[in-house]
């Protein structure tokens, strides 16, 4: 019974859980089994790359593969590397569960608890080896001195490890250490999806960064995109055509092509086209109906708002611009870029410092647009402003929360991610006033890595990427204006005794 092949091993596990076995899972299982057998007999096919669309279950299949090879040879040592230790640990934990519960792996679980830890375990085996049967490591961990028969690189490329040239270089340098860990004839398996045009999974070299060959040159590849060349879904039960269409619309063409179709996307292809903006001239209309506040724009009820301030202390016309932007969302999911204001201070006002001047202008901006909260980017100089802005809001009687935000992702990628989906869907409206600001020129001239100004783009990207903030208002001078967002509390006066 222990000579069962991997596809049957997978089928038995799914039967035990009451699950079906999708066709693309069988395809992965057959490919992995064929490569494993070929490697054992001839020493070939020891370098593999498995790419499949997001949420395809590829990590689950690889975990079952690990349990299957340990069933056949309990002396094997498997090292799992991932971008984060928690992700690698999750795969190890999953394999432990399979070993415990699969009908064909009974007897592998050791009796001693210290050999059955959360991040590593050792199955019952005849040999006394120093390294455990399976161990999890983050890509930044020190693996010097380890030895492995199989190294699995599960999602080592994620935005946090590849969104800049130095990070990509560091990732490649760390992955090169695998050569010193693998035993002769060992198996190396990469599992993931591309997150950059300069991905480690590319089939062709990137000549512009001095690559003479792809990083994984010579690796046997299996690629399973969500949609095949005939337009058929690889997993129709989970991803029918209508869900694929919705996913494409929500994520945008760049992210969909990268994560679901496995096409490394050049960020420059996401160049921003202001002609995709939908111009409007309507102004905000605030009203109350039966005591319930209501904010509308061009006849549509607004349900949430995002405001982002990217501050700068540069003198007018010099250095980075200090930009505050406001985006509203309506009931149908449309986005309304209502204002983008490039703030300046007056150097001649010696009695008031520039930071206070800018905070007052933001307070005026917030009050005019009925905004419930403003997110302040606190990178660099911005970390000194939240307290000052709260003081100016309170002094002006503006009931608005200040939310401190830190941008950790590369600015170019953040801008593409923010604009790609909404522009492709035609869901971003822009007020006439926006067209009179430098923002439109920034859109036309922007290229990733270029030297064109992008201060307005960065502020609007912050609005689009942030979740609408629904916080209670800070105490200040009372205003007649009430909270226009739906779902707020309503106080009804009563004149009767109980």
Q: What is the CATH class name of the largest domain? A: Alpha Beta
> Beta-sheet strand percentage?
15-25%
Structural class: alpha/beta
Question: How are helices and strands ordered from N to C?
Answer: HHEHEHEEEHHEEHHEEEEEEHEHEHEHH
The CATH superfamily of the largest domain is known as: P-loop containing nucleotide triphosphate hydrolases
Ends apart, CA distance between termini: 77 Å
- What is the overall pLDDT average? 88
* Shape designation: elongated
Roughly what percent helix?
25-40%
CATH architecture of the largest domain: 3-Layer(aba) Sandwich
Biggest β-sheet strands, sense, barrel: 9 strands, mixed
Count of β-strands: 16
The radius of gyration computed from the alpha-carbon positions, rounded to a whole number of angstroms, is 28 Å
Number of helices: 13
Q: What is the CATH topology classification name of the largest domain?
A: Rossmann fold
- Unreliable residue stretches: 469-479, 489-498
Count of the domains:
2
Describe the protein in words.
The protein has 498 residues and is an alpha/beta fold. It folds into two domains: 6-224, 3-Layer(aba) Sandwich (Rossmann fold), CATH 3.40.50.300; 271-465, Nucleotidyltransferase, domain 5 (2-Layer Sandwich). 31% of the residues lie in helices and 20% in strands. The chain contains 13 helices and 16 strands. It has helices at residues 6-17, 23-42, 58-72, 85-101, 159-162, 165-175, 241-251, 253-259, 354-368, 386-395, 411-424, 439-445, 455-465, and strands at 47-52, 78-82, 120-121, 134-138, 148-154, 182-192, 220-224, 278-280, 284-289, 292-297, 300-310, 322-330, 335-343, 373-377, 401-405, 428-431. Strands 8, 9, 10, 11, 12, 13, 14, 15 and 16 form a nine-stranded mixed beta sheet that branches. A seven-stranded mixed beta sheet has the order 3-4-2-5-6-1-7, covered by helices on one side. The longest helix has 20 residues, at 23-42. It starts with 5 loop residues before the first helix and ends in a 33-residue tail after the last helix. Residues 469-479 and 489-498 have low confidence and may be disordered.
């Amino acid at each position: 019974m222990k000579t069962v092949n991997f596809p049957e091993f997978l089928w038995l596990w799914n039967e035990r859980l009451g699950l079906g076995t999708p066709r693309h899972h069988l395809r992965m299982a057959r490919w992995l089994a064929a490569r494993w057998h070929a490697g054992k007999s001839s020493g070939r096919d020891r370098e593999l790359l498995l790419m499949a669309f997001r949420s395809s279950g590829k990590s689950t299949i690889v975990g079952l593969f690990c349990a299957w090879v340990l069933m056949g040879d309990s002396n094997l040592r498997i090292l799992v590397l991932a971008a984060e230790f928690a992700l690698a640990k999750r795969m190890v934990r999953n394999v432990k569960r399979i070993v415990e519960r699969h009908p064909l792996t009974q007897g592998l679980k050791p009796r001693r608890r210290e050999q059955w830890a959360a991040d590593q375990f050792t199955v019952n085996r005849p040999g006394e080896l120093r390294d455990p049967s399976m161990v999890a490591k983050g890509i930044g961990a020190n693996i010097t001195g380890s030895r492995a028969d199989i190294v699995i690189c599960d999602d080592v490329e994620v935005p946090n490890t590849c969104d800049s040239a130095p990070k990509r270089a560091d990732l490649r340098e760390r992955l090169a250490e695998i050569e010193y860990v693998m035993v002769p004839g060992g198996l190396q398996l990469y599992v993931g999806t591309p997150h950059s045009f300069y991905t480690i999974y590319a089939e062709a070299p990137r000549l512009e960064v001095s690559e003479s060959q792809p990083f994984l040159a010579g690796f046997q590849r299996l690629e399973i995109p969500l949609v095949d060349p005939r337009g058929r879904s690889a997993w129709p039960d989970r991803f029918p055509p209508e869900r694929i269409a919705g996913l494409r619309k929500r994520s945008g063409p760049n992210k969909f092509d990268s994560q679901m179709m496995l096409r490394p996307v050049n960020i420059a292809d996401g160049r921003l086209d202001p002609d995709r903006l939908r111009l409007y001239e309507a102004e905000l209309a605030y009203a109350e109906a039966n005591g319930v506040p209501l904010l509308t724009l061009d006849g549509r009820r607004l349900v949430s708002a995002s405001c982002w301030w990217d501050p700068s202390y540069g003198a007018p016309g010099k250095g980075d611009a200090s930009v505050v932007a406001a985006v509203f969302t309506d009931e149908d999911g449309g986005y309304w870029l209502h204002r983008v204001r490039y703030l300046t201070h007056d150097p001649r006002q010696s009695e008031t410092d520039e930071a206070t001047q800018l905070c007052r202008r933001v307070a005026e901006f917030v009050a005019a647009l009925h905004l419930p909260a403003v997110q302040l980017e606190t990178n660099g100089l911005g970390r000194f402003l939240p307290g000052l802005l709260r003081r100016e809001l309170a002094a002006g009687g503006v009931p608005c929360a200040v939310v401190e935000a830190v941008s950790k992702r590369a600015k170019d990628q953040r801008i593409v991610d923010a604009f790609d989906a909404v522009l492709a869907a035609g869901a971003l409206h822009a007020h006439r006033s926006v067209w009179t600001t430098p923002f439109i020129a920034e859109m036309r001239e922007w290229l990733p890595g270029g030297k064109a100004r992008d201060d307005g783009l960065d502020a609007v990207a912050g609005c689009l990427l942030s979740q609408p903030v629904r916080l209670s208002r800070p105490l200040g001078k009372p205003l007649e204006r009430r909270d226009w967002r739906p779902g707020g509390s309503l106080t009804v006066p009563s004149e009767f005794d109980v």
